[in-house]
């Protein structure tokens, strides 16, 4: 459903929210280990998210990434749009460019409902809301 970039980006943002909630900063190595991703790949993703203003960073020996209150309120939908574009929210289930209300593909109506439900879930999910359940080990971010 998401690109690998988007999967890692969402997981990284949730990981950072969990580990920076008390003012700590999280380095690339720690993020990569915590979400089971390659360091170089997650570094590029974090650089992009930093440029777009959803995550903050500080350089230097005590530096790293962190989220402020605004970052914790960022929706998963915003991260998806930043990293994958709008295709998930507007695209055809069969990947057809000409699919529309006026010229629907065979799965248009059913896929439209699914796309709307996924969009609503992503719009209503904020990065910071997952931290308590992660702390309680009700959720996880890394493959075992």
UniProtKB/TrEMBL annotation:
SUPFAM superfamilies: Winged helix' DNA-binding domain. One of its GO terms (molecular function) is DNA-binding transcription factor activity. It comes from the Bacteria. Transmembrane segments: none annotated. This is BadM/Rrf2 family transcriptional regulator. GO terms for cellular component: cytosol.
């Amino acid at each position: 459903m998401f690109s690998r970039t988007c999967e890692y980006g969402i997981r990284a943002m949730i990981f950072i929210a969990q580990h920076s909630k008390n003012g700590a900063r999280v380095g690339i190595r720690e993020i990569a280990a915590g979400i089971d991703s390659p360091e170089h790949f997650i570094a590029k993703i974090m650089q992009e998210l930093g440029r777009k203003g959803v995550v903050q960073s500080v350089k230097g020996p005590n530096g790293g990434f962190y989220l402020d209150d605004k970052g914790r309120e960022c929706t998963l939908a915003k991260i998806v749009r930043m990293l994958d574009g709008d295709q998930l929210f507007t695209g055809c289930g069969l990947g057809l460019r000409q699919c529309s209300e006026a010229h629907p593909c065979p799965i248009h109506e059913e896929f439209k409902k699914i796309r709307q439900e996924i969009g609503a879930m992503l719009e209503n999910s904020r990065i910071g809301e997952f931290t308590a359940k992660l702390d309680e080990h009700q959720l996880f971010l890394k493959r075992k």
